[in-house]
Amino acid sequence: xxxxxESGGDLVQPGGSLRLSCAASGFxxxxxxxxWYRQAPGKERExxxxxxxxxxIFSYADFVKGRFTISRDNAxxxxxxxMNSLKPEDTAVYYCHSPSLGYxxxxxxxxxxx
Length: 114
Description:
Blueprint: E1 3-7, E2 11-12, E3 18-25, E4 34-39, E5 46-51, E6 58-60, E7 68-73, E8 78-83, E9 92-98, E10 103-104, E11 108-112
Parallel strand pairs: 2-11
Antiparallel strand pairs: 1-3, 3-8, 4-5, 4-9, 5-6, 7-8, 9-10, 9-11
């Protein structure tokens, strides 16, 4: 069955970095674009970044441009989100999503706090 499993979330100080991973299984990963979303407590889920099936096309929400980088390794069926210069407002549960297949991962918690 289709699975998306996020990992890499942690508690980090402001200005720090984390790399999130989204490991996919159960479908032909290289054919599908993937999105990262996040949801902070009491707020709606918001789109963070998008990457195409090949990895050559990507986009970012304005609030992460210049700080986050999305990438993928189709040989490993994995999408990454490199997060640098983290801010307290980046605190949220981060989810990966396959919009074409309609599947979500379970999420990974990122907390940015001193």
